[in-house]
Write a structure and sequence with these properties.
Elements lengths: L13 H11 L8 H13 L4 E5 L2 H11 L7 E4 L6 H8 L3 E4 L11 H7 L4 E7 L8 H10 L3 E5 L19 E5 L12 E5 L2 H10 L32 H8 L5 H16 L1
The chain binds pyridoxal-5'-phosphate.
């Protein structure tokens, strides 16, 4: 019997839909308390100190590159075996993606190939945990420290991953995640960053919304409160609507991963 594997079927439950409706009936459809709650829960899931919700993984990667002020004359070493967003974000900030080969068995960037591609212009490694398999983060961190490079993890495919006891975002400087329609944790469009650095977290929180010191929900105290623009940011803040769809899915993410695995095995036999 031939069974077709669907493009994707989301796993939204009655609880997720009820959470969405609660937000629809509230004042803040945009960034507010629900995003904050999701961020805390997500950070704890990936064992990082902080998480910041954004509109997509593409925005998350671009924000990470902008934090480090990478631009013209900078080279970022990355992998050609990824979705186009990975290299695109390097182009967005005016830096140059430098592709190195991948390991034949995992499809992940080959740590041994990176050193040969490092030049005085190399500033960072943008690595991709392809299809849920994590790169060798311990070896990557060692190499990056030797050459004073930052590591940005494109973890669009890998929220649940762990290798040698390391989760995404634990050894990299920043990790970026996707909640696009086809991802294991999905809300249609959405993304997040995780990090363990207070300064990066503080910058990301403001930079995801124009660089404003406080967003509308922070200032909503039934009287006018002003904000400052501290830095030139982007406009990619996650909304309460997105967070409401995501927050309860996190509880069942591991169970969902197991059931997806069994589904695919079933399709193959
Ligand atoms: C490896 C990888 N990086 C980045 C992205 C971009 O994610 P988003 O659609 O959330 O911007 C994707 C999307 O599929 C991806 O597969």
């Amino acid at each position: 019997m031939i069974r077709k594997i669907e493009f994707y079927r989301h796993n939204l439950s009655a609880k997720d839909k009820a959470a969405l409706l609660d937000v629809v009936d509230s004042v803040f459809l945009t960034t507010g308390k629900v995003v904050e709650q999701f961020e805390k829960k997500f950070a704890s899931y990936v064992h990082s100190s902080h998480a910041v919700g954004v509109m997509s993984c593409t925005h998350a990667l671009e924000l990470a590159l902008r934090y480090f002020q990478f631009g013209h004359d900078d080279e970022i070493i990355t992998t050609p075996l990824s979705f186009i967003a990975t290299a695109n974000t390097i182009e967005y900030v005016g830096a140059r993606p430098v592709f190195v080969d991948v390991e034949p068995n995992t499809g992940n960037i080959d740590v041994r190939a990176i050193e040969k591609a490092i030049t005085p212009r190399t500033k960072a490694l943008m690595v991709v945990h392809l299809y849920g398999q994590m790169c060798d983060m311990k070896a990557l961190r060692k190499l990056a420290d030797r050459f004073h490079l930052k590591i940005i993890e494109d973890s669009a495919h890998c929220i649940e991953g762990m290798r040698d006891g390391v989760r995404p975002g634990q050894l990299g400087d920043v990790a970026a995640y996707s909640f696009y329609a086809t991802k294991n944790l999905a809300c249609g469009e959405g993304g997040a960053l995780s990090c363990n650095n207070e300064n990066i977290y503080d910058w990301l929180l403001r930079a995801r919304q124009h660089g404003m010191s406080r967003n509308a929900a922070d200032r909503y105290h039934k009287r006018y409160e002003h904000y400052d623009m501290d830095l030139l940011g982007m406009k990619c803040n996650m909304s309460n609507l997105q967070a409401a769809l995501l927050i309860n899915q996190l509880d069942d993410l591991d169970i969902f991963l197991d059931s997806m695995f069994l589904y695919f095995v079933d399709c193959l036999i």
